[in-house]
Design goal:
With about 650 residues, the chain is α+β, with helices and mostly antiparallel strands. It contains twelve helices and 33 strands.
């Protein structure tokens, strides 16, 4: 006999002796047949009502049973089950403990349910202790043994998570969005514009019908009464999973349309128009299949679509996929996000935050509390997604937890839940995330790109680059009228360029390293046609203090300038260097000339013919701002490009 078997035998003997001792102390006296006939009849009627879904009646009859026969142990245990079904875990726990105190031997087979209720109330330490005891009484290969082993795994995870996040001081206080949003029906799948001014969501109607609603946020922080979205997108009854682009101009949703679909649910999109939302159009065979596609989420630059599908070839169940928009505006082939994100269970409801780097999703396959939990993953500088992090209790519970979205501030989350103050079914709530689960706070700039001469809107390309890493954060195309919205996560500084063939590009710099209250704003951008004497301030070219050595962050714009010259072979330009008026005029003239030459030298290294380039230093002779202030002097220290031949 091995030592392990001996130990297990000793444990078993101890348990049997303990059970015998308990039986002697408390006595396994309880026998349902010994209860009086009247209480038995009431009890069986209670069980019938509970099985028929008549919860209130069934519970009241259980209490009537216990009033007739206070020691009806089985009624106390059934009461635990009734309360547990409604997630009233504290009442369920008290019911079991009354039964246990009366007859622990008879109640022992209900210990697994007791531990589940303990975990439901957040008492994971107690749940772990009791599940360990229960596991000693059942075969590991039995169905109950396997169920208990699974629960032990989740309780151990919960305890480890509590220890890991012990210093977070997180308080979970969801706030109902109120009667303007919530109704006696279920509301879910919320989606906001980036400034929170417009909320859209799904409401369950009669039968399987789901309709899309919208509400405006007022200046006083309250919402207008929700109305159905205007347009034809509500005509089809079978739909859901709505998601709106941050600028509020584009909508994505899942629908099971009898005509024009590929089979089961497909993903559709529609455009905002003055008359409401346009007729929905199917995103095509690169996104949709004959299988189920749903829960779309569009990236803030509208260039990447994330969604769920149960198509063959995944890792199992439902997987999360992504598709990139091509230069022609069409969606590229959907790509499975791989085993870091997806599991053999269901992985779905992705939500990409406005920072374009943090994704929240639901999974039943990653370590967690049981059922499906909410997770986040972050995009690394190399384009890889991090190992998903569980959002933790009490955001996640022992039950299935659905989707959530997070506002641009990175802190405020919205989700659907059934709670004590719900108006009926699922309601929409908001709450603040703990520090470890927050996305990066995101500001934004929006506006219109247009021809400086004609004022006509110009479809144009926009790129946002991280100055420190050189990583491309956003690459997008404005709409046909030149309208755009670009998100800027705080904590970094960015180069911003707008370009269109036949025009000088526009550049700017956004300093988001330190949070700035006025860093969300509207910026209309005039592009100047390429003609002789057209000029451009190169706002993203910087030099070391008092030197002509280019800063690393300048290379993004210098490369953009090189591209412009390569695309327009007849273009000749002057690079002008300018300084403020601090110091000796001759020194300033020399510094400005050397800085202009440094730019020309870089362009030559990029293959631009020197005959097309002229370096000229102006020193402090052409200020564009007041040299009496630091802000003015900073504007005067600049590099410009002027067209001298075309």
């Amino acid at each position: 006999m091995t030592m392990l078997i001996k130990i297990r035998l000793i444990v078993s003997i101890i348990f049997v002796l303990t059970a015998s001792l308990l039986s002697g102390l408390f006595g396994q006296w309880y026998n349902p047949e010994n209860m009086n006939k009247k209480s038995q009849a009431t009890y069986f009627q209670a069980i019938e009502n509970l099985r028929a879904g008549q919860w209130e009646t069934g519970r009241n009859l259980l209490y009537q049973t216990l009033k007739q026969e206070p020691k009806f142990v089985e009624a106390w245990l059934s009461l635990m089950g009734a309360y547990g079904e409604k997630k009233r875990y504290d009442s369920a726990i008290l019911s079991f403990e009354k039964a246990w105190k009366m007859d622990s031997i008879f109640s022992e087979s209900w210990l697994l349910s007791y531990t589940i209720n303990l975990a439901g109330s957040g008492r994971f330490k107690d749940a772990a202790q009791w599940i360990n005891r229960y596991l000693q009484t059942v075969s590991p290969e039995s169905r109950t043994g396997k169920a208990a082993a699974y629960r032990k795994k989740t309780y151990d995870f919960a305890l480890a998570f509590e220890e890991k996040k012990a210093g977070s001081n997180f308080s979970f206080n969801p706030v109902n969005l109120g009667d303007s949003i919530n109704s006696s029906r279920s509301e879910y799948y919320p989606s906001f514009t980036i400034d929170d001014s417009l909320l859209v969501f799904t409401r369950r109607m009669q039968g399987f019908r789901e309709d899309f609603y919208a509400s405006q946020l007022l200046a006083n922080g309250k919402y207008t009464a929700a109305r159905t979205l205007e347009g034809s997108l509500n005509e089809e009854a079978s739909k859901g999973g709505i998601n709106m682009a941050p600028d509020g101009e584009l909508m994505f949703f899942a629908g099971n349309f009898p005509a024009g679909g590929y089979g089961d649910f497909d993903i559709y999109s529609c455009q905002a128009t003055p008359d409401g939302w346009s007729i929905p159009y199917n995103l095509g065979e690169n996104i949709n299949t004959e299988f189920w596609e749903s829960s779309p989420s569009i990236s803030p630059d509208k260039q990447t679509l994330y969604f769920s599908s149960n198509r063959p070839g995944g890792l199992g169940g439902k997987d999360i996929y992504m598709s990139k928009r091509n230069a022609n505006g069409k969606w590229g082939p959907a790509v499975n996000m791989g085993p870091v994100i997806n599991t053999s269970a269901d992985d779905l409801a992705p939500y990409i935050h406005a920072d374009n780097q943090t994704m929240y999703f639901t999974s039943g396959g990653h370590p967690g509390y049981g059922g499906s939990d909410l997770y986040l993953t972050r995009l690394g500088p190399g384009g890889e997604w991090s190992i998903p992090e569980n959002l933790g209790y009490p955001i996640n519970t022992i039950d299935d937890d659905g989707s959530l979205i997070v506002a641009a501030n990175g802190t405020t989350a919205y989700f659907a839940s059934f709670r004590s103050d719900s108006r009926g079914g699922l309601d929409l709530y908001r709450f603040d995330l703990p520090d470890y689960a927050r996305a990066r706070k995101t500001k934004w700039v929006k506006g219109r790109v247009f021809d400086k001469v004609t004022d006509k809107g110009l479809p144009s390309g926009i790129e946002v680059t991280d100055n420190e890493s050189g990583a491309l954060i956003h690459s997008l195309i404005t709409d046909e009228s030149g309208n755009y919205l670009v998100t800027l996560p705080t904590g970094r500084n960015y180069s911003f360029t707008v370009s269109r063939k036949g025009y000088l590009f526009f550049s700017d710099r956004f300093y988001m390293e330190k949070e700035n209250a006025d860093s969300s704003f509207t910026k209309d951008i005039p592009l100047e046609p390429i003609i002789v004497n057209a000029s451009l301030e190169l706002k993203n070219i910087e030099f070391e203090t008092g030197s002509a050595r280019l800063e690393k962050s300048s290379f993004v714009e210098l490369n953009k300038l090189a591209d412009l010259l390569q695309e327009n072979e007849g273009l000749k330009v002057e690079i002008g260097g300018h300084t403020d008026n601090v110091g000796n005029a001759a020194d300033n003239q020399k510094l400005s000339q050397n800085r202009a030459k440094a730019v020309v030298d870089y362009l030559i290294e990029k293959g631009i013919d020197i005959k097309r380039l002229l370096a000229k230093g102006y020193g402090s002779t052409k200020p564009i701002a007041d040299n009496q202030t630091e802000a003015g002097r900073a504007r005067n220290r600049r590099t410009e490009m002027k067209v001298i031949g075309y």
